């Protein structure tokens, strides 16, 4: 697991230990949760005292201790997967087919398989815990002729398969709801209070999700349950007991106690996993205070101005920006370090580095918004972006154009033109750290997962991703296409746009699959807008940090270091304001996302663009209210001056 | 120490307070005053008759319809929908002829148990048994809220515009620079308890309603007089209603809301419409919120004899138990270092001092004084006036401190039954630097027969302080207090008060200090 990222001091020294602490807490919380689960699963109203004594005797038995050790192993594994798969920038699928591509990705497949196996293990522990008829997989039974045989215990099997199913659906839902996305809260709280506040929500959403999973599982088992049953019987050389009802029948499944135990076990499984995830999120997003400057040169790489400019890992950049936003707001002594001059030479290195990095972040977002707007404006709709939105650009768009070719050959060129123009214009613009194209073959199953995570931050929806049309990008396409579409890819209509597909392909072309894919490719509303602002938490902090620093510089900046940067800060913010305003005039951009009531997935990323817009306005107002009419002396273009006047008159 | 005895006596009937100039309150008769009021664009009058009120009551319209027999299932479903779990149990218990005996008996027992438990809970926190209208009236900062024509008022923190919430659940926005007065109406905008403009923003107005929190975005450049309800964001959280108080952070990033029914105080990130509940048991709810002007602390009072002061960096709180009653009102000094508050059932103003934590130190608990000091005693005092004796003083409804920290307005409840105990506003002169001092200034009175209901200081009045008072008649008046602020530097010559020199009169009262920190 040693990879490029591990070499970063921050991941080694901070993130890793935070993850370890969160896993340790999750393991420590396991005994009480298990005890509660034992009591709930074994309790009977008719014999309460007997049930309690049975629970106590079970809790001290060897099998309980063994299953507890297994559960600890599962928790550690889940915690480890959290650490491996987490991201601070969500991956947003812009179309349904992109989502499908994510779900069928090899990396996701490994994840799902892991969760399936862990689900089976937890379900086995649950079977031991619940006891009774669930305990063993084989029962002695008497056949019709009276000879004793080993028969399959279907209750045990149904519980194990339920564990696998719930684990699998948990991992699928994790992709759909971006459960690996770690969001930062606007309200800072201590870890214990954060944890306590979210606990009831975790319990509630584990129980609901378990309910839905069990419902789906029962339907699946009703139709397909005979397959695993026959397979197990064959491999383990067991017989089916003909004297009891088979469980994949209506009568068999209408067993309330069975349903209750399935639901309780699924809730237990999901609760322990969600709890591990919650602890991980709470620990990882804790504020880390970076020194602004250090007197020792060997510590210089850990200081805020250096750390801010680091491109990787993203978590380091995010925590550094969060620290900047907080220090600019709350601590005058650290602000004074930012405004201070270097000892020999008298240069404001700290302020220069910080303001430059923040401004380049904001300028990058402005560029992105302008580029997106231009694409949409030339195209009428965000079509080229949607096709360029998935894990590829070139190959997928060639498929699109291929299929469209056949339905309407002429407009294809029109469709393609803006995309290519767009791609060129993007290549021309300076690449910011966030958007630098990555060339390693990330999506092959053999690449290190950690390395892949590094690129996961990169927005796969955005046009600036994958502008490099190297051959390996082809492999990123999830293999969902029929051979005919694949041949179309290889037929490279992109390389030679003039080559119209050969007539012989034509009859096979408008296949159902192709049409289906075409339909699925339509953009999910507002997804591209969400994707544009996927990493906007960084911009929000940059805006807050800059504006608070500028505000306090009015009274605290002794050497006037901020004044020199004021024109560029103002014009950068006003330029961004203009781009954001234009973006929100697009259809879908200002439509509010549907609130998902209870899910472990974090939906913060869906509203980041609104948060950015509000923060941007507040930041500009913060500067204008502090400086007031003094701003008239600042040099800026006439257009920006007009906009600034609006702010000075409180008319924005 | 009775502070009110040192005040100049109240004005004779027919005189109204106009302004303060040269250290003394000037008054005028009603007729000449009227002319002045009509000419001023911001003085408004909302006669009660002009408002269209709802005749609809909160209770359901069930009684108006004939009873007709439905099946038990239908009735149970309806009861579940209307009355929740208790309604269902009630329905089952009442229709004992149709259901099996064991079911009706067991549901009856459960219902009795639930009622006993809720009455027990209610006896711990009596306010939980009130209806939401009563609760709003009880905990609002407005005197006699349910009868008020103007239910809430808010100045914009940066410009000369304000929002007025009226008895008919509409909100009007007045701006002297624009001809349009937008009227805000929304389906969910019922029983407005408080309105507040978002700082560092020109458009956003938060409204505390009976069931939710609305954040309106009113474009100041728009010519529309009826912004659509699409301009409003709805923020709600289960169990968090009715909302009696809201407060924006001075940096404009967060909004906190309080409900007496909910032990959690909600901290909203309005742009992303997500709220974080800050739960603390004890107190039984949160009634009043006030964010300190420097943004470092939030006062949160509860319906019990307890209030909390939250520190806003890591959101931890200090508990402050009171001896007698709940904290009724509070206000912060401009630098956020001093909190004045009043307690229900007492006639004094207390002060708490918060010293700044050493900057940059990660421990963020606010270190303050160990006990609150009494700074003013407003117990009842009799003044002899030509119209007879007037008794002034008693319990305090609300406090307001002007943004320069030089005037403190105190709204005294009075007694609505007794004619000689009117509700009145007492104004103190205050000084926070270098030591805290309190001096008498005078009483603010309106037209005869009207009482002040609500008051607020203008957030950035150039020539001193401007107190806006909403009267029971539906009139809104603005009272300037002209003075040179000691704390605020004056640029150029515009700082000097532009009022005609008033006639000389000795102002002995003003010299006597009521409270200084050296005394205590």
From TrEMBL, chain A:
> In which domain of life is the source organism classified?
Eukaryota
Q: Which GO terms describe its molecular function?
A: protein-macromolecule adaptor activity
| A Pfam family assignment | Ndc1_Nup
Keywords (A to Z) from UniProt: Membrane, mRNA transport, Nuclear pore complex, Nucleus, Protein transport, Translocation, Transmembrane, Transmembrane helix, Transport
What InterPro entries does the record point to? Nucleoporin_prot_Ndc1/Nup (IPR019049)
Topology in membrane: Multi-pass membrane protein
Q: Where are the transmembrane segments?
A: 15-43, 55-79, 116-135, 155-180, 201-224, 262-284
GO CC entries: nuclear membrane; nuclear pore transmembrane ring
Its function? Component of the nuclear pore complex (NPC), which plays a key role in de novo assembly and insertion of NPC in the nuclear envelope. Required for NPC and nuclear envelope assembly, possibly by forming a link between the nuclear envelope membrane and soluble nucleoporins, thereby anchoring the NPC in the membrane.
Task: Please give the family membership noted in the entry.
Answer: Belongs to the NDC1 family.
UniProt name for this protein: Nucleoporin NDC1
Whose protein is this, by species? Sander lucioperca
From TrEMBL, chain B:
InterPro entries cross-referenced by the UniProt entry: Aladin, Beta-prop_Aladin, WD40/YVTN_repeat-like_dom_sf, WD40_repeat_dom_sf, WD40_rpt
Q: Which Gene3D superfamilies match?
A: YVTN repeat-like/Quinoprotein amine dehydrogenase
The lineage's top-level taxon is Eukaryota
Write down any Gene Ontology CC term: nuclear pore
Q: Its Gene Ontology biological processes?
A: nucleocytoplasmic transport
| All copies of domain Aladin seven-bladed propeller, residue ranges | 131-482
Q: What is this protein called?
A: Achalasia, adrenocortical insufficiency, alacrimia
């Amino acid at each position: 697991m040693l990879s490029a990222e591990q070499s970063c001091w921050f991941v080694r020294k901070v993130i890793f230990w935070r993850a370890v602490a969160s896993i340790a807490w999750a393991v420590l919380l396991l005994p009480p949760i298990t005890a509660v689960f034992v009591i709930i699963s074994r309790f009977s109203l008719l014999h309460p005292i007997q049930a309690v004594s049975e629970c106590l005797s079970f809790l001290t038995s060897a099998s309980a201790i063994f299953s507890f050790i297994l559960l600890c192993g599962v928790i550690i594994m889940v915690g480890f997967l959290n650490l491996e798969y987490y991201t601070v920038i969500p991956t947003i699928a812009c179309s349904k087919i992109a989502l499908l591509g994510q779900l069928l990705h090899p990396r996701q497949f490994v994840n799902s398989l892991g969760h399936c196996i862990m689900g089976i293990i937890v379900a086995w522990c649950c079977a031991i815990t619940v006891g009774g008829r669930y305990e063993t997989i084989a029962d002695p039974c008497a056949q019709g002729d009276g000879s004793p045989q080993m028969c399959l215990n279907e209750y045990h099997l149904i519980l194990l398969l339920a564990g696998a199913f719930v684990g699998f659906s948990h991992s699928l839902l994790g992709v759909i709801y971006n459960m690996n996305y770690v969001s930062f809260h606007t309200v800072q709280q201590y870890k214990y209070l954060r944890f306590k506040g979210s606990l009831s929500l975790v319990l509630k959403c584990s129980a609901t999700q378990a309910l839905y999973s069990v419902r789906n599982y029962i339907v699946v088992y009703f139709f397909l349950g005979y397959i695993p049953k026959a397979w197990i019987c064959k491999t383990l050389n067991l017989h089916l007991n003909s004297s009891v009802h088979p469980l994949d029948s209506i009568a068999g499944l209408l067993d309330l106690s069975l349903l209750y135990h399935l639901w309780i076990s699924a809730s237990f499984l999901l609760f322990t996993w969600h709890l591990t995830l919650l602890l991980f999120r709470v620990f990882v997003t804790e504020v880390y205070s970076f020194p602004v400057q250090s007197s020792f040169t060997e510590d210089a790489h850990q200081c805020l101005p250096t750390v801010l400019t680091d491109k990787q890992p993203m978590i380091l950049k995010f925590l550094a920006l969060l620290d900047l936003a907080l220090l600019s707001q709350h601590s005058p002594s650290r602000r004074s370090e930012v405004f201070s001059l270097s000892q020999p030479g008298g240069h404001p290195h700290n302020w220069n580095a910080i303001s430059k990095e923040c401004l380049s972040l904001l300028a990058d977002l402005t560029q992105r918004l302008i580029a997106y707007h231009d694409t949409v404006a030339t195209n009428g709709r965000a079509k080229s972006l949607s096709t360029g939105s998935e894990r590829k650009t070139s190959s997928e768009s060639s498929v699109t154009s291929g299929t469209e070719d056949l339905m309407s050959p002429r407009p294809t060129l029109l469709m393609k033109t803006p995309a290519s123009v767009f791609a060129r214009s993007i290549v021309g613009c300076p690449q910011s750290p966030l958007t630098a194209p990555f060339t390693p073959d990330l999506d092959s199953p053999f690449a290190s997962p950690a390395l892949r995570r590094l690129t996961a931050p990169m927005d796969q929806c955005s046009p600036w991703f994958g502008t490099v049309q190297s051959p390996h990008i082809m492999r990123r396409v999830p293999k969902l296409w029929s051979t005919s579409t694949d041949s179309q890819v290889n037929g490279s209509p992109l390389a030679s746009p003039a080559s119209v597909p050969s007539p012989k392909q034509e009859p096979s072309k408008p296949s159902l699959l192709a049409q289906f894919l075409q339909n699925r490719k339509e953009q999910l509303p507002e997804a591209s807008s969400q994707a544009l602002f996927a990493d906007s938490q960084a911009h929000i902090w940059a805006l807050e940090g800059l504006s608070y620093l500028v505000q306090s510089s009015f009274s605290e900046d002794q050497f006037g270091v901020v004044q020199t940067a004021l024109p560029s800060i103002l014009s950068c913010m006003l330029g961004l304001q203009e781009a954001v305003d234009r973006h929100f005039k697009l259809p879908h951009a200002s439509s509010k996302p549907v609130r998902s009531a209870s899910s472990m997935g974090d939906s913060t990323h869906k509203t980041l663009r609104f948060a950015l817009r509000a923060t941007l306005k507040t930041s500009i107002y913060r500067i204008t209210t502090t400086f007031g009419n003094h701003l008239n002396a600042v040099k800026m273009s006439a257009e920006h001056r007009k906009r600034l006047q609006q702010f000075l008159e409180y008319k924005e | 120490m009775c502070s009110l005895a040192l005040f100049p006596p109240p004005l004779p009937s027919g005189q109204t307070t106009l302004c303060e100039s040269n250290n003394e309150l000037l008054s005028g008769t009603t007729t000449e005053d009227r002319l002045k009021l009509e000419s001023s664009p911001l003085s408004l009058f909302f006669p009660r008759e002009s408002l269209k009120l709802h005749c609809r009551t909160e209770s359901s319209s069930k009684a108006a319809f004939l009873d007709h027999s439905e099946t038990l299932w239908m009735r149970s479903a309806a009861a579940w929908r209307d009355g929740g779990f208790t309604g269902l149990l009630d329905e089952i218990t009442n229709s004992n002829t149709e259901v099996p005996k064991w079911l009706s008996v067991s549901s009856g027992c459960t219902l009795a148990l639930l009622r006993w438990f809720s009455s027990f809970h209610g006896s711990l926190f009596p306010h939980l048994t009130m209806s939401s209208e009563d609760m709003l009236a009880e905990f609002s900062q407005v005197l006699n809220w349910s009868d008020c024509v103007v239910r809430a008022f808010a100045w914009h923190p940066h410009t000369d515009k304000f929002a007025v919430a009226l008895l008919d659940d509409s909100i009007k926005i007045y701006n002297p620079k624009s001809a349009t007065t937008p009227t805000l109406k929304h389906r969910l905008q019922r029983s407005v308890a408080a309105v507040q403009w978002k700082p560092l923003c020109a458009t956003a107005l938060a409204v505390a309603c009976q069931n939710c929190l609305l954040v309106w975005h009113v474009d100041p450049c728009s010519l529309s007089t009826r912004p659509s309800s699409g301009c409003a964001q709805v923020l709600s959280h289960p169990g968090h209603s009715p909302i009696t108080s809201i407060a924006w952070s001075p940096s404009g990033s967060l909004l906190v809301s309080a409900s007496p029914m909910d032990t959690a105080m909600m901290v909203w990130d309005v742009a992303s419409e997500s709220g974080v509940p800050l739960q603390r048991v004890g107190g039984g709810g949160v009634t009043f919120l006030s964010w300190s002007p420097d943004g470092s602390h939030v006062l949160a009072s509860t319906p019990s004899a307890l209030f909390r002061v939250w520190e806003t960096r890591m959101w931890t709180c200090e508990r402050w138990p009171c001896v007698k009653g709940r904290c009724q009102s509070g206000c912060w000094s401009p630098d956020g270092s001093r909190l004045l508050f009043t307690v229900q059932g007492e006639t004094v103003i207390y002060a708490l001092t918060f010293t700044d934590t050493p900057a940059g130190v990660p421990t963020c608990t606010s270190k303050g004084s160990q006990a609150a000091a009494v700074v003013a005693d407003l117990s009842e005092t009799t003044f002899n006036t030509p119209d007879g004796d007037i008794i002034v003083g008693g319990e305090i409804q609300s406090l307001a401190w002007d943004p320069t920290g030089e005037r403190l307005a105190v709204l005294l409840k009075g007694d609505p039954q007794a004619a000689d105990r009117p509700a009145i506003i007492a104004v103190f002169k205050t000084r926070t630097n270098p030591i805290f001092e309190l001096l008498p200034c005078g009483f603010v009175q309106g037209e005869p027969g009207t009482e002040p209901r609500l008051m607020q200081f203008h957030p950035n009045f150039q020539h001193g302080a401007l107190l806006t008072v909403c009267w029971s008649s539906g009139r809104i008046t603005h009272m300037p207090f002209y003075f040179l602020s000691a704390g605020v530097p004056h640029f150029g010559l515009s700082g000097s008060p532009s009022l005609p020199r008033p006639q000389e009169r000795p102002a002995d009262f003003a010299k006597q200090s009521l409270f200084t920190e050296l005394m205590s």
